[in-house]
Amino acid sequence: MLSIRMTVILLYHELLMKNNMNHKFTLKQALDELKNNELSLDDLYADINKSIADQNKKLNVYLTLDDKALDKAKKEKNSPLMGVPIALKDNYCTKNLRTTASSTILDNFVPAFESTVSKNLKKAGGVVIGKTNMDAWAHGSSTETSQYGRTLNPRNTDYLPGGSSGGSTAAVAANMCIAALGTETAGSIRQPAAWCGVVGLKPTYGRCSRYGIVAMCSSTDSPGPITKTVEDSAILLNYLAGHDPLEGTTANLEVPDFTKAIDKDIKGLKIGYLYKDLKGLEEITKIFAEEMKVFEKLGATVEVVDAMNPKHGISIYTIVQRGEVSSNLGRYDGIRYGKDRSFFGDEAKRRIMLGTYTLSKGYADQYYNTAQKVRTLYIRDYERLFKIYDVLVAPTSPGFAKKIGATEGQAMFGELEDLLLEASSLSGLPGISIPCYKDNETNLYLGMNIIAPMYREDLVIQVADAFEKATNWNSWRN
Asked: Of the residues 79, 114, 125, 165, which has the maximum number of CB atoms within 10 A of its CB?
């Protein structure tokens, strides 16, 4: 005779399957269900694959799927991540699985090696279910520069998901995976996370290895998790982070257990509110004034901060990024990788030309070196602020997601949409975007960006988790 507990578990499992809910599990929920034998990998993958089959044609999220993912998952039942399906942005090199960076130059490129971060993910038992669409070469903040077509925002398909990690954030928002990985150069995790109403964690530059990731701007590129909840991001970061002897910019520091920052109160913390009076943010300033009260109710002190104007970050980032792009894309000459340069898209060509110009003789001092000096001023300004405040908060993006086609004729679209993130990325700081408001008419979200000193991901997780649990903005906690 079945015990009462087992009968309840079976009834719950039957109800769950009947209502097609498995794919809506958070990472923590999926791991708990698998551990307690209340969920099988067969059921989980069947449900995720059905979600992909139902939505991928319309949303254009996955460029490549691994049809052996379930078989791989069953070999990981006793590992920390237990074989759960994770989506990867298509600039992570994955051994024996196509990697395109959403450019037709790499249309047939199947790496013979694995990126360090995806290797760490697999070592922990995560399974790559597929590779997601992105702005080609990570050039953009919309996913409209992809040479495989744009991705749509699952919250409202008349709108863009953001970018460049738009496919990964859309996969999470549409429950087409349990969690995903993206990369950020200056907003490419946090901005699409805000637009799609999910959680996007950008670690400190150097916390996670860049080895095996298609390079865009080498001095700011940062891989990180995109998840349904803050706790899910903390769980994943535990396995992604760490020193890598193959990648010289990784920090040789012990990786803490980031999940210890979950369920910690924030009483007594000092929070600085950035950019309250910045022109152009009037639409969302009133919303954020209300959300700041949440922190005060939780016992933190909130003060409006006078910081260096973020608008300078647009020109700094444009110059530094274009210069590094022109160098990093030089290898795609049709000899070592894929097709020749005639297959570059328009955005890549524009960035190569501008970057080459700013690095050329007679102009490097005038542009690139000057930009690096102003970049240092941002770093020093943050150092000043973090002597006073534990974390700094601000809107992730200047507004809600933009409509399809918004990038047409807008050469600086990405830089303007990443306005509030560029300074912290240029400074190498960790940050997280969490949902903090939903417009019921459009079903679109706003994100809140929380940043902390370098290597203090625990602080951004602690504050973000406290806010998430004190509000109803996260759709997986309702």
From this structure: 165
